[in-house]
Amino acid sequence: MSVVSELLKFNQQFVEQKQYQAYLTDKFPDKKMVILTCMDTRLVELLPKALNLRNGDAKIIKNAGAILTQPFGSAMRSILVAVYEMGAQEVLVIGHHGCGMSNLDTGALVDKFKSRGISDTVLSTLENSGIRMERFLRGFTSAEEGVAHSVGIIRNHPLMPTDVPTHGFIMDSETGRLDLISEGYGGDVPS
């Protein structure tokens, strides 16, 4: 049985048995927060449980490394929509130790593109169009650096209201321990 077949079979039972009722909520975050975090599989259940978040409590945006690669990209757009349209009043950027974006080898990743059939012509066309692989696939040397980068883009974004605090955290992807590295209420690093 294929992955899609298994998913559809389970989904049919889920709906028929009305298991969705335990998750009913509306589109507005009850805790008035939006979280930018990593797509790492270890955080799927750990992060909400470690923060005591239930379905409907927060808008959660996930991407590789919780990194904003550009101030006008889709992740930043989602943060702005969460603030202006969904009532989010605080932004949390949560990176984690052991992130795959830490020390990402862009050259090795481009080699993997090629080994899966992406031609040099495509890569060269992208480069000639202004898409720089080292920027597009930007990683970081430490999780703290990655979080600080994203927090800086959000705090300094020309469309972000100045009364919305942005905080930066690092999570231990095994224990769920959360360390505050940048506090958005006017201070920076906690004492």
Strand order of the largest sheet: 2-1-3-4-5
Shape: globular
Order of helices and strands: HEHEHEHHHHEE
Provide the CATH superfamily of the largest domain. Answer: Carbonic anhydrase
Stated plainly, the CATH topology of the largest domain is called: Beta-carbonic Anhydrase, Chain A
Structural class: alpha/beta
Distance between the termini: 54 Å
**How many structural units, i.e. domains?**
2
The average pLDDT value, as a whole number, equals 95
How many beta strands in the DSSP annotation? 5
Number of helical elements: 7
Q: Biggest β-sheet: count, sense, barrel?
A: 5 strands, mixed
- For this structure, what is the CATH class of the largest domain? Alpha Beta
Radius of gyration: 19 Å
Low-confidence stretches: none
CATH architecture of the largest domain: 3-Layer(aba) Sandwich
Cofactor: Zn(2+)
Pfam families: Pro_CA (PF00484)
GO molecular function, one term: carbonate dehydratase activity
Organism: Paenibacillus eucommiae
